[in-house]
């Protein structure tokens, strides 16, 4: 199994990023590929998890070890596969998911694509009290910081918004849900990554 890959950021798609290492391009599925757009052509370390099934071998990648640890916890829950775990992590920070699980906030958890009441309850049953090794300190304060995080500096355009919509569709959000928030997003002038973060904040508030 690959623990991490160190290489050059190449192609970026709605669901994946390509990391080139020693002449080999690794297609790595990641929660939000566009966070790597500012690092295109640069060398980075991406933490990886290899998922093997009878019909597919996939490589998942994460910007931090915390994200990778949270991903492994999530796919251990009955009813959550890799794609569902990626959609949950796409919000940006594992801390809010951990807080929701510890506080048994089913309403928050069911706002993620593919997470119904039954799956939310299973997440709480399976993971509550077992996530200290993922994020042991400052959980509440960090969650508040994430909730209050601003959109950031503005450098995007309509093409960036279209890319963000593609990424959100790949994460499992429906066309109806995205149409509902698009007018609000179109007022902003930000990067693709920032559009995705802002969109997820809006979707989770619905």
UniProtKB/TrEMBL annotation:
Family that this chain belongs to: Belongs to the RuvA family.
BP GO annotations: DNA recombination; DNA repair
SUPFAM superfamilies, sorted: DNA helicase RuvA subunit, C-terminal domain (SSF46929), Nucleic acid-binding proteins (SSF50249), RuvA domain 2-like (SSF47781)
Annotated localization: Cytoplasm
The record's note on its domains: Has three domains with a flexible linker between the domains II and III and assumes an 'L' shape. Domain III is highly mobile and contacts RuvB.
Region listing for Domain III, in residue ranges: 155-206
Originating organism: Siminovitchia acidinfaciens
Record's keyword terms, sorted: Cytoplasm, DNA damage, DNA recombination, DNA repair, DNA-binding, Hydrolase
Function noted in UniProt: The RuvA-RuvB-RuvC complex processes Holliday junction (HJ) DNA during genetic recombination and DNA repair, while the RuvA-RuvB complex plays an important role in the rescue of blocked DNA replication forks via replication fork reversal (RFR). RuvA specifically binds to HJ cruciform DNA, conferring on it an open structure. The RuvB hexamer acts as an ATP-dependent pump, pulling dsDNA into and through the RuvAB complex. HJ branch migration allows RuvC to scan DNA until it finds its consensus sequence, where it cleaves and resolves the cruciform DNA.
Domain called Helix-hairpin-helix DNA-binding motif class: residue spans: 72-91, 107-126
Taxonomic classification: Bacteria, Bacillati, Bacillota, Bacilli, Bacillales
GO CC annotation terms, alphabetical: cytoplasm; Holliday junction helicase complex; Holliday junction resolvase complex
Protein name (database record): Holliday junction branch migration complex subunit RuvA
GO molecular function annotations of the record: ATP binding; four-way junction DNA binding; four-way junction helicase activity; hydrolase activity
Entries under InterPro entries matching the protein: DNA_helicase_Holl-junc_RuvA_I (IPR013849), Hlx-hairpin-Hlx_DNA-bd_motif (IPR003583), NA-bd_OB-fold (IPR012340), RuvA (IPR000085), RuvA_2-like (IPR010994), RuvA_C (IPR011114), RuvA_C_sf (IPR036267)
Top-level taxon of the source organism: Bacteria
HAMAP family linked to this entry: DNA_HJ_migration_RuvA
Subunit structure: Homotetramer. Forms an RuvA(8)-RuvB(12)-Holliday junction (HJ) complex. HJ DNA is sandwiched between 2 RuvA tetramers; dsDNA enters through RuvA and exits via RuvB. An RuvB hexamer assembles on each DNA strand where it exits the tetramer. Each RuvB hexamer is contacted by two RuvA subunits (via domain III) on 2 adjacent RuvB subunits; this complex drives branch migration. In the full resolvosome a probable DNA-RuvA(4)-RuvB(12)-RuvC(2) complex forms which resolves the HJ.
């Amino acid at each position: 199994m690959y623990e991490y890959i160190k290489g050059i950021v190449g192609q970026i798609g709605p669901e994946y990023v390509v990391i080139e290492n020693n002449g080999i391009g690794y297609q790595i599925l990641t929660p939000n590929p566009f966070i790597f757009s500012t690092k295109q052509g640069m060398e980075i370390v991406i933490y990886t998890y290899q998922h093997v099934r009878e019909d597919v071998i996939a490589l998942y990648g994460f910007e931090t070890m915390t994200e990778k640890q949270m991903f492994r916890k999530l796919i251990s829950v009955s009813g959550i596969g890799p794609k569902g775990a990626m959609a949950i992590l796409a919000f940006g920070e594992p801390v809010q998911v951990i807080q929701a699980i510890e506080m048994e906030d089913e309403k928050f958890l069911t706002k993620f694509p593919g997470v119904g009441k039954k799956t939310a309850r299973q997440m709480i049953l399976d993971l509550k009290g077992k996530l200290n090794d993922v994020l042991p300190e400052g959980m509440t304060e960090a969650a508040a910081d994430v909730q209050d995080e601003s959109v950031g500096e503005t450098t995007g355009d309509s093409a960036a918004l279209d890319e963000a919509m593609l990424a959100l569709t790949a994460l499992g959000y429906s066309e109806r849900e995205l149409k509902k928030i698009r007018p609000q997003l179109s007022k902003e002038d930000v990067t693709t990554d920032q559009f995705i973060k802002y969109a997820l904040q809006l979707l989770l508030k619905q």
